[in-house]
Write a structure and sequence with these properties.
UCP033199, single chain, 2 strands, DUF2200 domain-containing protein, SP1917_dom_sf, mainly alpha
Length: 120
C-alpha cells in the first residue's frame, strides 16, 4: 500500500518538535534513554545533539529537517511495516525518510540491540 498525496503533504507540515517528545516518551517507557534516541537520529541524519536540540527549539518541519540531513547510505536497509505502510514501497522521499525514523524508534523501543537498529 502506497501513501496518498494527502498523507505525503501532511509529512511536509509536521514539525520535528511536535513528534520528538513522542519518540522520547516511547523509548523511555521501554527503558531506553534519550542518548540512545539521539544515537539513532544521528545515525540516520548525521545530526548531533546540539543540532537536534536546535531543530526542536526552532520548530523545523520534517521537510526542513530532512532537507538539511545527510541520510545514512545504509538507510535503505531499513525495511518492514510502519503505520500500515511497507517502507520499501513508499515512493515519496520525505515520507520514506520520516518512516525510516519511525521504524528505528520502534526498533529501539522494542529492545533491539543498538547494533541491529543501526544496521551494523
Amino acid at each position: 500500500m502506497n501513501t496518498t498525496p494527502e498523507h505525503d503533504e501532511r509529512m511536509v507540515k509536521i514539525t520535528f518538535a511536535s513528534v520528538y517528545p513522542h519518540y522520547l516518551a516511547k523509548v523511555e517507557r521501554k527503558g531506553r534513554t534519550k542518548e540512545e534516541l539521539h544515537q539513532v537520529i544521528t545515525w540516520l541524519t548525521g545530526f548531533h545533539d546540539a543540532e537536534i536540540e536546535a531543530f526542536i527549539a526552532d520548530g523545523l518541519t520534517f521537510k526542513d529537517f530532512f532537507d538539511k540531513a545527510h541520510l545514512n547510505p545504509l538507510a535503505s536497509l531499513i525495511k518492514g511495516s510502519i503505520c500500515g505502510y511497507k517502507i520499501e514501497e513508499i515512493e515519496n522521499p520525505l515520507t520514506k525518510n520520516v518512516r525510516y525514523l519511525d521504524k528505528l524508534v520502534d526498533e529501539l523501543a522494542k529492545g533491539k540491540k543498538m547494533e541491529k537498529v543501526l544496521r551494523g
